[in-house]
Please model this.
Amino acid sequence: MSALAWQIAQILLVAVLAPLATGYVRFVKARLNGRRGAPPWQPYRDLLRLLKKEAIVAPSASWLFRAAPYVTFAAVWLAACVVPTFTTAIALAPSADLIALVALLGLARFWTALAGMDVGTAFGGIGSSREMLIASLAEPAMLMMTFSLSLVAGTTQPAQIAAFILGGDIGVEVSLGLALAALVMVAIAENGRIPIDNPATHLELTMVHEAMVLEYSGRHLAMMEAAAMLRLTLFMALISCLFFPWGMALPGDGPAAVAVGLAAFLAKVAALATALAVFETMIAKMRVFRYADFLGGALLLGLLATIFLYVSEAV
Amino acid sequence: MGQISYEVAHLLGATMLMAGFGLLYQRRLYAVLNTFAFQALALAAAAAWQAHVQHAPHLYVTAGIALVFKGMLVPFALHWLVERLGIHRSVDTALSIGWTMIVGVVLVALSILLVLPVTANAAALTRESLAVAMSVVLLGMLMMITRRNAVTQVVGFMALENGLLLAAVSAKGMPLVVEISVAFSVLIAMTLFGIFFFRIRERFDTLDLQYLETYRGDRQ
Model:
């Protein structure tokens, strides 16, 4: 029964936290750039304003264009619900593993790309094409990371991996470090952050995600924006669940442990968001033709993680 | 204790291997030099760790040599050369970076498959270090093959030598004399390379070695 309650709490938590996390990243970036910046809660206001506005749809748009924001949002929200955040004792934890998570994110991406092409403008098409290029490189890297992680932990379920790492019979494992680096690189690419894509850009030639949602307005745009924010929070939750699960409550813990887990989760998200803002401020955007090198590097790290695992096993 | 010593050695070896891949990934000459310096620092740490684990004080000398010569002197000298020669700052590759990385992974797998069965009777620490060291050596060779610029080829050679030193420090009973003579011969090689850079540039106005291949001397 409590698993269900925690699950509902998590569903609400990720939805409420996502805009704040994104706003916080923007705020820190603005401060690092020497600007005052909008307060971290600005995305809430933006989303509310977009929800109130009229949604304008191009005459050439089909039903797919209208459905895509809701499907995308639902898929990402569901994905964010199954990754344990403050406790592993959530009702949906056994039903979803990392491979299903990749599939859910793939579904969201598929619909966004279709919607980008639906209206038939050039920018939507180029955005979709680039998004698919990134996806075709990022997904193998993510799966390779998953494989090496599941070879270590013996399972692909995030909750059990977290429990395994919390169990403590694991030392300085090189493979885990390599897998973490691979996941961070994939997360940067999937969320369209610098150096892959600039989330703040409105220069047509450089945008990827922005180009796909260019035709959206009103509540549709709000859904798309919220999905992007949720995806960022989801990856932060995934990184902290798989590699830094300390503080997280386990099944059978009381409300006090859950409160500690919640505080730890908020601290982890804040730390990761700050790190992301600092990293984005320090680095320049990459040329499109170098994406393959960057994500190939992530795939390579995942592969090396598996190879090192094999070495340790053989020794 | 045994577990921790094994894991730290594992970690340092993996750091060196990652730096080897970093050398292949970088596109800027200065970044290549910095990555090489980082690899040498990891080598020094690995040597110091082996000295601690094996209770072999002479390995601390090896660590010091790696730190001073390869971590500082050689990168500074190469920095100075690049600045002095005013050469192009980006790296010319004979094979695209993506393909180089794939070949690199294949080489790592190859050296693991080769070393592990051959050294079946050796201690775990040695086997693993040998596998990693051989990968670093092969990656250095790969870098020498796939880069056109003379400076990056020299960095590849030095990285190869880093791998040799890693293998040497993880095997027990390597005499200090050998290590010192290797370190000095590398330094002499470095000086020779420096002189050759100037000569090559004087002759061809570039450090791209593909011009050397077609050069037939003064008789046309």
The two ends of chain A are 45 Å apart (CA to CA).
